[in-house]
Design goal:
Blueprint (H helix, E strand, L loop, with lengths): L1 H15 L4 H13 L5 E3 L6 H8 L3 H7 L13 E3 L16 E2 L10 E3 L3 E4 L6 E3 L4 E7 L7 E7 L3 E11 L6 E2 L4 E5 L9 E7 L2 E2 L6 E2 L2
Parallel strand pairs: 3-14
Antiparallel strand pairs: 1-2, 4-5, 5-12, 6-11, 7-8, 7-10, 8-9, 9-11, 9-12, 12-13
């Protein structure tokens, strides 16, 4: 058994390559034990999208696994099953897509942890969609994010734009790359800012992987 675990660890290390030690450890545990989150009891105020953010699970998998129909209404105390939504290994060969910048001024982003970018900018500055996609959240639907826009992009990507002021798109709208979707604001924030994140298959992408180009 000890020999098997050692060989398995070496194989995992080879696959993970240049990933961080923390990511390697997390994914090694997931490969051996699987994701322990097999179900979830819906709390007041939850939505499919807020649960996906909180548990790092692809919202589309929640929808499919639980046979949810549009508009994907869920109820407090409802049990959602995630039995096949295991966390994915780190994708070392992740393609570095050149996204449209969420702000087109000379705004410099501050890294907030490994997964968020924070732009401290004046209220009212235009926020742009980083790529074509479909709006899945528009408004103060998820506590802690203020007025939030969330856009679903091809290949399992999601982009999040938090603490907006005015929002110019609604749920279900199709948006194009570079389209103005909202203004910078300070909703549920102590100062005017845009907090921004990209996810793939429900898992946040390390902000060092993000590249922007007009």
């Amino acid at each position: 058994m000890i020999a098997f675990r050692f060989v398995f660890f070496v194989m995992s290390f080879t696959l993970i390559g240049c990933a961080s030690i923390n990511d390697m450890g997390d994914n090694f545990k997931d490969l051996v034990y699987g994701n322990p989150k097999e179900s979830y009891i819906v709390q007041p105020g939850d939505s499919v999208w807020s649960i996906g953010i909180k548990l790092e699970i692809d919202p589309q998998l929640i929808i499919l696994r639980n046979n949810l129909k549009k508009p994907y209404v869920i109820y407090p105390n409802q049990r959602l099953e995630f039995s096949f939504t295991k966390r994915l290994p780190v994708e070392i060969t992740e393609t570095r897509i050149k996204w449209h910048p969420p702000l087109t001024s000379n705004a410099q982003a501050e890294k907030q942890g490994r997964y968020w970018l924070k732009y401290l900018q004046p209220k009212g500055q235009s926020i742009h969609s980083i790529s074509e996609g479909k709006v899945v959240v528009s408004g103060p639907d998820i506590p802690g994010y203020g007025n939030l826009v969330m856009i679903s992009h091809p290949s399992g990507y999601l982009s999040l734009y938090a603490h907006c002021d005015k929002i110019f798109v609604k749920q279900g709208d199709q948006v194009s790359r570079g389209m103005i979707i909202a203004n910078v604001g300070n909703s549920e924030s102590s100062s005017s800012m845009l907090r921004f994140q990209v996810r793939k298959n429900g898992k946040p992408l390390n902000n060092s992987l993000l590249e922007f180009h007009l």
